[in-house]
Amino acid sequence: MRSISGLILLVTAATFYLYLLSTYLPPGPHHPRTGDEPVKSNENSDPDLGSEEHRTLKFPSDLEELRELAELLQFYKTEHTGYVLLLFCSAYLYKQSFAIPGSSFLNMLAGALFGPWQGLLLACLLTTMGSTFCYLLSRTFGKQHIVRLFPDKVALLQRKVEENRSSLFFFLLFLRFFPMTPNWFLNVTSPILNIPITMFFFSVFIGLIPYNFICVRTGSILSEISSLDDIFSWGTLLQLLAIACVALLPGALIKHYSHTHLKLDGLDQNGHHLNKKLR
């Protein structure tokens, strides 16, 4: 009970911090909504027009909300780069640390705000840091509760980890490349499986590079698209093809390694039991 109270207190404090950060935006010109003309300053206009308004940002749930959020943050980024970076990092770590789904939209937002390469580096670092925080939170507050809530899945993963202990790092990479079990569940169960935190850290950083690359590069492309014609241009199609090739190559190498070195009987795409061998 004590551990649950501590976790609730931590989640509440983090939520309150993120709420304040996302609600009280720094002063600036009024954000031009889609289809509106930008507000032009003149001698009779207030230079801090819109600064008295409090806008509450929220996590995007679809591509339209993602585009609107990216436009707003790009607008603020021109004068408040540090604020936008702090807000983005805080929101990303919040989701990762507390195992909240939806990192794909934040990865795409990273590409739209910071470009494909800076966005990829930022996404990889934040994914790894947030997953490590989740690992530490699970180890501190939730080990016994996770075992009680998911006894069968934890037992299955425990058995697979022990069978692949000699190639544990590559086994962890395989689980990151292929969705045998959700990433959030692997984060919260890793302390129970006695996976060293250093190995966990680097398996997350390396194993999620293809996924982060796809999302970030897609976000950077979406930020450059202004019409449906742009989606089907040769340049965009070639970029998407390159993304697919780069992302599939490391996965293919890991899968080839797994056929001869890893024991994966009993795992399927959702981490459930299967009474057959991996084909």
From TrEMBL:
Residue numbers spanned by region Disordered: 31-54
TM segment ranges: 7-25, 117-138, 168-186, 192-211, 231-254
Record's keyword terms, sorted: Membrane, Signal, Transmembrane, Transmembrane helix
UniProt cross-references to Pfam families, sorted A to Z: VTT_dom
GO cellular component: membrane
Cell compartments where the protein resides: Membrane
Major subcellular location class: membrane
Keyword field contains Endoplasmic reticulum: no
Transmembrane helix among keywords: yes
Domain VTT: 100-219
InterPro entries in UniProt: TM41A/B, VTT_dom
The name this protein goes by in its record: T41AB protein
